[in-house]
From TrEMBL:
This is N-acetylglucosamine-6-phosphate deacetylase. Signal peptide: none annotated. It comes from Kribbella pratensis. The lineage of its organism: Bacteria, Bacillati, Actinomycetota, Actinomycetes, Propionibacteriales. Belongs to the metallo-dependent hydrolases superfamily. NagA family. Residues 38-386 form the Amidohydrolase-related domain.
Amino acid sequence: MSEVLEGRTAGGRGVRVRFSADGIEEITDHPSAPDLLLIPGLVDIQLNGYGGLDVNDPSRPASELADLVRALWGQGVTTVYPTIISADDATTTTLVRRAATARATDSDVAYGVPGLHLEGPYISSAEGARGAHDPAIIRDPDADEFDRWQAAAGGAIAIMTLAPERQGAIEFTRHLVQPSSGPAAARGVVPSVGHSLATAADVHAFAAAGGRLSTHLGNGLPAQIDRHENPIWPQLTEDALTAGLIADGHHLPADTFAALVRAKGATRCVLTSDAAALAGCAPGDYRTAVGGAVTVGSDGSLRLQGTPYLAGSGASLLDCLRWATGPGGLPLETAVTMATTTPADLLGLHDRGRLDVGARADLVQLTSTPDRAVGDLVTVVVNGRLIAPGNS
């Protein structure tokens, strides 16, 4: 049975969208459409948790990932790549296996989580570059270890963040991009450079070996770096790499964000939230599996308690979209593409992240202000199913 949703696209076109569980069936012009923004469901390729739900804590209930997927509907996020940070072999195995079980037993998770993102442990152990990752478990890449994780994940690991300067990293990158075989067969993994002090030669070698993404470009670095010889510039100039940018207003100042987008080109940038488990929680002091003692500030930032250091993001991707089109200065259509079509295409999801006939019916309807700012969530459609925000 088909249903209809009306509104104005990010480009301002009034449309009526007819959809069902089979996908978007028809899009027609509707000049008198209500003044509501109608965009594809958001695609978040880096998120550790939200609203107190944590994909990095093996002691949490088995339903955690399913609860997270449904909680994110209330933020307009219909596709997510849960991100597991540096951990020991046993913990990583447990976490990816739990995710695989959730994907196999819950249809909402199977649809909403096309893959997983491993952020580490093959990253820089240098202070500043490692961020909040535990230096005790950071190590050089190990293809056999990764293959065990991929088997435990049922082939679901889709993104791997690593530091190209680590011993064996370039060979490991080549290993990642090769399609696997066997019962846990998966297409090649997207290698991403992050938490790295790579030289320009390292970055270019990484891209030549199959690297395709920069994890939160401009972050995961020491506070002081050389003005010329640093990892940012070669990542900006390397066309093979798409830049992930945390648009929460804390990780990147507005001018820095704008400069990175202009230098890289908006078509090679994606918005990511890097949301941690405490994102969306009330201000106060908390203890989490990742970061330990963390303070949620009144400004929404997450910081290691008693320090100025960020402990992930306190924003959802919808919050990031609002900031990117406000202080971030991006045109609405550009920012929406960076949060939908571009990340979907990067991960091979060419039937999501777009308002096209034949695409999956993942839709978000929001209010908009007179200056076309992104307002409040009105309606969410997930794979053709109408979801009432707040009742997910």
